[in-house]
Amino acid sequence: MIGKFITLEGMDGAGKSTHIPNIIALLQAQGHEVVSTREPGGTPLGERLRDLLLHETMHVETETLLMFAARREHIANVIAPALARGAYVLSDRFTDATYAYQHGAKGVDIKKIEALENWVHEDLQPNVTLLFDVPVEVSMRRLASARQPDKFERESHEFFHKIRQAYLLRAALNPSRYRVIDANQPLEVVNKSVETIIATL
Ligand code: TYD
Question: Which residues contact 46 (CB under 8 A, 6 or more apart)?
């Protein structure tokens, strides 16, 4: 038995976290065991790495390597075993985020990220990736009113623009895996799009 691997992506402030409880409930209603997790993080070691990644200043390649170190642990201890027993794994971010943030916004050579991706999860890709897409202004406005920003959330308009473009390019290059959701709509409308996608899984 093989489960399904579903990932959620989008800029900070795109609102993906809001939808997680609903997505879990929808999948459970279909009768699936759901494992909800996140990156960076998802394991005790991964959560310690997350704390460093979100709050310490470091070289962008160090950051990239730590993202993949946390991911290696996450796949070995959480994602792969869950999929093997037939569960549906819902991860708040995965490798697409490294392409968007570390390559798209911060300029790490894409070949280095591809090499790490091949090393860490050559045979594993999400079955479906939901990209919550909003204009940069909307994301920045939501963040400004929401909470204490972490390291990534303190970045400039230009940085967020690059992230959005990188995600949209990933979506265009992987059309069978990506579902792009216009998240700049009333919550009920976004919910409806999410429900439609989950119903077809
Ligand atoms: P996020 O998922 O937005 O969580 P929260 O909503 O709790 O703040 O925060 C994780 C941050 O880590 C986000 O700004 C994106 C960043 N990130 C990367 O830069 N690269 C990656 O590979 C991953 C997984 C996350």
Answer: 39, 40, 70, 71, 73, 74
Cβ–Cβ under 8 Å, residues 65 and 71: no
Q: For 71-85, how does the pLDDT look when each residue is reduced to its tens digit (9 = 90+)? A: 999 999 999 999 999
Share of the chain above pLDDT 90, in %: 90
Phi then psi dihedrals of residue 21, to 5 deg: -60, -40
Classify 130 as helix, strand or coil.
Answer: strand
Pick left, alpha or beta for residue 15 (phi over 0 → left; psi -120 to 50 → alpha; otherwise beta): left
Instruction: Identify the architecture of domain 4-199 in CATH.
Output: 3-Layer(aba) Sandwich (3.40)
Would you say the CB of residue 43 lies under 6 angstroms from ligand 1?
no
Q: How far apart are CA 155 and CA 164, in angstroms?
A: 13
Query: 50 near 98, Cβ under 8 Å?
Result: no
In a mutational test of the pocket of ligand 1, which residue from 90, 101, 139 has the highest number of ligand atoms less than 8 Å from its CB? Answer: 101
Q: How many residues does the chain have?
A: 201
pTM (predicted TM-score): 0.96
